[in-house]
Amino acid sequence: MARLMCRLFLFAGLLTLLAGCAGPGSPPAPGDAPSTSSAGDPDDSVSGSAAESSPSPVSRPGPGLSLALREDSRAALEAGDPGRAIALLERAIRIEPRRPELWLDLAELHLDQGRPARAQQMADRGAALARGQPELERRASQLLERIARVARSG
């Protein structure tokens, strides 16, 4: 009998643990959806739609953030802070690593800072990602030529 009780407690503990894994941030089970308010109260319907349209706290940053960081990088460069400009572009790349213009911008910054080898790496990556986009391919090609000239001259 004691052995059976021990197994029941163990089973109940596991169920409790699994129920706790769902946590407050997990979506509700299909039958657990909260009930909506009465149709006669217009304030409740507005608050319900606002809650449904709020962004999820687990959502991934999108292109808007990487492009905003790109603009912040340009502003930092104009303000005379190339180190911050580079850091902002690197952050943008961590968010959206397949955006060729970020890599090309970073390559130009490294080249302007006297690091042609690093600029070459960034430009190569940007050029690879720019395939099929004529304007970006042209920009990458011109940048790679510029890097080659700098590397030859010194």
Describe the structure.
By secondary structure, this protein is an all-alpha fold. Helix content is 71%, strand content 0%. It has 7 helices and no strands. The longest helix is centred in the N-terminal third of the chain and has 21 residues, at 2-22. It has a domain at 63-153: Alpha Horseshoe (Serine Threonine Protein Phosphatase 5, Tetratricopeptide repeat). It is globular and about 85 Å long.
**Cα distance spanning the termini:** 86 Å
Rg of Cα set: 27 Å
Helix tally equals 7
Uncertain residue segments? 13-58
- Portion of residues within helices: over 70%
- Relevant CATH superfamily of the domain at 63-153: Tetratricopeptide repeat domain
Largest sheet: none
Question: Number of DSSP strands?
Answer: 0
Shape: globular
Briefly, what CATH class of the domain at 63-153?
Mainly Alpha
Find the structural class using helix and strand composition.
Answer: mainly alpha
Can you write the helix and strand succession as a string? Answer: HHHHHHH
Mean residue pLDDT: 75
User: Beta-strand level of the residues, as a percent range?
Assistant: under 5%
Corresponding CATH architecture of the domain at 63-153:
Alpha Horseshoe
CATH fold description of the domain at 63-153: Serine Threonine Protein Phosphatase 5, Tetratricopeptide repeat
